[in-house]
Amino acid sequence: MEERLIKKLMTSMKCEECGQNYESFNIDILGHRKDMWFFRALCSSCHTQCLVAAVVREDKMVEEVGDFTMGEMNKNQCGAIEIKDVLDMRDFLVDFDGDFASFFGQEKLR
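The structure corresponding to this sequence follows.
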């Protein structure tokens, strides 16, 4: 997968704080391992930073990514990311093998 395509996908996303679309020149690819990509996006409007971990598979790619509907936006709204959230994600990723299909296919005991 080309970094250019990953950045194009991210430009269809809107900033959680101000609702502006991200611009490709403000998206930094931090790295990837297999289908798991990590990148940082900076909003040109309000200067809020966003850290993203996303699974992107070439065989599952669609030609164009559209905007979310208002119903989808409201359903997926969540609060600001806090330091605890970042630390929890880091702890999760340390031992995670990248197999989301298995992860979501079975109930995990905590």
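Confidence is low (pLDDT under 50) at residues 60-65.
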